Amino acid sequence: MKLSHVSSLLVLAAALAGCGDTATLPLAAGTGPRPELPPPHKTLVPTVNVAPAKGWTAGDKPAAAPGLVVTAYATGLDHPRWLAVLPNGDVLVAETNAPPKPEDGKGVKGWLMKQFMKRAGAGTPSANRITLLRGIGADGSAASRAVFLENLRSPFGMALVGNDFYVANTDGIVRFPYVEGATHIDAVASDVAPLPGGPINHHWTKNVIASNDGAHLYATVGSNSNVGENGMAAEEGRAAIWEIDARTGQRRVFASGLRNPNGMAWGSDGTLWTVANERDELGSDLVPDYLTSVRDGAFYGWPYSYYGHHVDDRVQPQRPDLVAKAVPPDYALGPHTASLGLATSAGSALPAPFSGEGMFVGQHGSWNRRPYSGYRVIFVPFANGKPSGEPVEVLTGFLNAEGEAKGRPVGVAIDKTGALLVADDVGNVVWRVTAAGR
C-alpha cells in the first residue's frame, strides 16, 4: 500500500471516529432480565469510539468497591486474557492474542477496524504461552512465576480433569499430562478435537470448561462475522457451544445462535452459564450483551434475530423458522460492554453483597458505543439459581478522565483463598481483590 494511500486512510479513520450515533438510553436500561430494546438506529458509518490503550502509571490501580481492596498479583505480563486456578492453588494465566487472520476484514473497512483495534491495545503478536503464578508474597504479589506451557496457538481456555490438562487453542482442544505441583510441562500435546478456525477466524478466542464428572468438555466458538456478511457457509460450526467427549473426542453442537460466547461457569444447580457478545452497528443502545443459561439443543437467535424474536433485517435470506424458536437470554449486561469473563461466586471470601450466590463478569469495554460501556468488573446476584437484582460494581476506574484505557478486564476467577482474580490485557496485570482487612 502506498504511503499516500495510508495517509489518506488514516485521515479517513480519524474522521470516521467522530461519526455514528450517541446513546439515548442510560446503560441501566439495557441491563437486567427485561432490557429496553429501542428500534435499531442504523447509520451510514457505524459508531467507532475506541478508548486508546494507555496502561497504568506506577502505583495506580483500579478502584475497588467499598469493603474491598485490590492489589497487583502479577505485573509485566504479555496481554494476559484468561485465568485458571488449579486444585493446589497455582494460578495459570493465558498470555495470548489473535493469530494471523489473512481473510478477516479485507477492504477499507477491515483495514480501518484493524487500526482501531491496535489503538485499543489488541494489535500485539501473541505470546502463545501459559504462565504459572504460585503463592502470595508479603506485598500481595505472586511469590513465584514460571513458564508453564509455550509454543501454543493463541491459547485461551484451560481446564484440568484429573491428570489431564486441556488447552483451547484457537483451532482446537489439546491435552497434556499434568503432575500436581509441576511448574512446567515439556510433553507434546495430544489432539482432542478440532474447532473452527481458518483464515477468517473473526472471533478467535476459544474457551473450554469440563463437566463436573470430567466426562465432557464444553467449548465456545464465536461467529466468523458480525451478522453473517461472510456467508453462512463460513459460519459452519460457529456461534455455538460444542460438547466434546473427553475420552474419544467425539463432538456435537450443544447450543447455537450465540454470536460470541466466551466465559462459562456452572451454576449451583448444575446448569451451564455463559456470557455472550451480541451484534454491532445497530446503534449505541443495541444490542445488549448477555448472561444466559445454556440449554441443550437451544438456538439463541444469531444472526437472524436478537433477544428472542427481534428480527435483524440486515441478514438475507431470513430464517423465520429459526427465529420462531429463538430462546431469549436470561440477563442483559448492557449494550457493547464486551462481557467476556465469567466466574461463579462459589468459594468466594468477599464480603456482602459479593458473598452470596452469583456470578462475577469481566467487561472488556465497548468500541461501538458512545459513551463508553463496560471497562469494569461486576457481580450479578442470583437467587434460586437465576439472576436476581441489579449488577453491583466490583472494580472500576479502568478509564481515565481523558477516555484512555489504563486497563481492560477480561478473565475472572476465584483463587484458593477466596480472592477474586482479574486478568487485565491492556495493563498487563493480574489484579487480586480481597475483603478489606484480610
Poorly predicted spans: 1-15
Q: What is the overall silhouette? A: globular
- Gyration radius from CA atoms, angstroms: 20 Å
Specify the CATH class.
Answer: Mainly Beta
Could you tell me how far the N terminus lies from the C terminus, measured between alpha carbons in angstroms? 56 Å
CATH level-four homologous superfamily name? TolB, C-terminal domain
- Our estimate of the beta-strand percent is 25-35%
For the record, the count of structural domains works out to: 1
Helical residue percent? under 10%
SS summary, helix count: 3
Please identify the structural class as seen in this structure: mainly beta
Corresponding CATH architecture:
6 Propeller
Main β sheet profile? 6 strands, antiparallel
Number of strands: 29
CATH fold descriptor: Neuraminidase
Output mean pLDDT.
93
What does this structure look like?
By secondary structure, this protein is mainly beta. Helix content is 7%, strand content 34%. It is built from three helices and 29 strands. It has helices spanning 3-16, 107-119, 320-324, and strands spanning 31-32, 63-64, 68-74, 80-85, 91-95, 129-134, 144-149, 158-161, 164-169, 172-177, 190-194, 208-210, 216-221, 240-245, 251-256, 260-266, 272-277, 288-293, 305-306, 310-311, 331-335, 339-344, 358-363, 376-383, 386-387, 392-396, 409-414, 420-424, 429-435. The strands form seven sheets. Strands 2, 22, 23, 24, 25 and 26 form a six-stranded antiparallel β-sheet that branches. Strand 8 (158-161) and strand 9 form a beta hairpin. The longest helix is centred in the N-terminal third of the chain and has 14 residues, at 3-16.
